């Protein structure tokens, strides 16, 4: 069963959106599996990440990985004053 997840990050700070986009860009260009596709778009103060995988368990694993990176990055940026 194919699954799709959309993660939306909204911020008034374009630097935050650009930092998250840049950190995840390599993975979106070369997903961890050929069974997944990942896209990212920044528009209107939002970063929209769409993850699609052929298997739900693979979608969960990729989503957990992305959310972990996003969480760490946002926390680090907040500590240096980029929110």
Question: Could you give the topology of this structure?
Answer:
Layout: E1 3-10, H1 14-29, E2 36-43, E3 46-53, H2 56-79
Antiparallel strand pairs: 1-3, 2-3
Helix pairs in contact: 1-2
What does this structure look like?
- This protein has helices spanning 14-29, 56-79; strands at 3-10, 36-43, 46-53.
- It starts with a strand and ends with a helix.
- It has a 3-stranded antiparallel sheet.
- The chain is elongated, with a radius of gyration of 13 Å.
- The chain contains 2 helices and 3 strands, in the order βαββα.
- The protein has 83 residues and is an alpha+beta fold.
- It has a single domain (3-79), classed as 2-Layer Sandwich (TATA-Binding Protein).
- Helix content is 48%, strand content 29%.
- Helix 1 (14-29) runs antiparallel to helix 2.
Features of this protein?
single chain; 83 residues; alpha+beta; TATA-Binding Protein; three-stranded antiparallel β-sheet; 2 helices; 48% helix; 29% strand; elongated
**Major beta sheet, strand line-up:** 1-3-2
Number of strands: 3
**Count of the domains:** 1
Helix coverage percent of residues? 40-55%
| Class computed from helices, strands and strand pairing | alpha+beta
Overall mean pLDDT score? 90
Fourth-level CATH superfamily: Alpha-D-phosphohexomutase, C-terminal domain
Provide the β-strand percentage band: 25-35%
Order of helices and strands: EHEEH
> Per CATH, what is the topology?
TATA-Binding Protein
CATH architecture: 2-Layer Sandwich
Rg, alpha carbons: 13 Å
Q: Please mark out the parts with pLDDT under 50 across 5 or more consecutive residues, or reply none.
A: none
Question: What would you call the shape?
Answer: elongated
What can be said about the biggest beta sheet? 3 strands, antiparallel
């Amino acid at each position: 069963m194919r699954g799709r997840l959309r993660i939306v990050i909204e911020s008034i700070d374009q630097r935050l959106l650009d930092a998250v986009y840049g950190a995840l860009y390599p993975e979106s260009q070369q997903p961890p599996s050929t069974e997944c596709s990942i896209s990212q778009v920044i528009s209107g103060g939002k970063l929209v990440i769409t993850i699609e995988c052929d298997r739900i368990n693979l979608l969960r694993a990729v989503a957990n990985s992305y959310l972990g990176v996003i969480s760490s990055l946002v926390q680090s940026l907040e500590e240096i004053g980029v929110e």
